[in-house]
Write a structure and sequence with these properties.
By secondary structure, this protein is an alpha+beta fold. The protein contains four helices and four strands. About 50% of the residues lie in helices and about 20% in strands. It is rod-shaped, with a radius of gyration of 44 Å.
């Protein structure tokens, strides 16, 4: 007697896994679409980089060309820019420290009007009496930041019981560098 091959199969028969094949097909299509999208983005990036290089090249050519003015007078703009720059670079702290150092309890400042072009500052204020005003003028002239100080006008306030003196001074402002 002849012996036949013995086949032991303990696994039950399973039909083809259609769900798994459907998932594999879906994932394959998704990967193909993503790859196509990636290639499209890569092409777009290359086109944009070429445009950037073209713009950079055009900008370098424009820089080398001589500047042609359109005939528009820009001097008011330049003057205004210089004025703003001068105001920003002015040593305002020196002016205020000088004013505060010279003032006392008997003088009240009401208005300051600096003129940067003339290097002067107009000071309007009120003093308790004329002697206090004269002491204030002397104190201002003693400050490093001020040159001569001129009394432009003064008026005793007769209606006020204290009779203060309203004054207007013009001080030469010596701006330190």
């Amino acid at each position: 007697m002849m012996m036949t091959d013995l086949r032991l199969d303990y696994q039950p028969y399973r039909p083809t896994p259609w769900v798994g094949l459907a998932m594999l097909l879906l994932v394959s299509i998704t990967v193909a679409l993503v790859a196509d999208y990636f290639v499209g983005l890569n092409n777009q990036a290359a086109v944009l980089e070429a445009k950037v290089q073209h713009i950079k090249a055009a900008a370098n050519i424009d820089v080398l060309k001589p500047v042609v003015h359109s005939g528009v007078n820009r001097s008011p703009e330049v003057k205004r820019a210089n004025e703003v720059l001068r105001k920003l670079t002015t040593h305002w702290e020196d002016l205020f420290v000088g004013l505060e150092s010279a003032s006392g309890e008997k003088v009240t400042l009401l208005e300051l009007a600096p003129d940067l072009e003339k290097h002067t500052v107009k000071i309007n204020g009120e003093a308790d009496n004329f002697a206090s005003l004269m002491n204030y003028i002397t104190a201002l002239e003693g400050q490093i930041v001020f040159g001569p100080v001129y009394l432009q006008s003064h008026q005793v306030q007769m209606l006020d019981p204290q009779k203060p003196v309203r004054f207007s001074l013009l001080a030469v402002w010596q701006e330190t560098p």
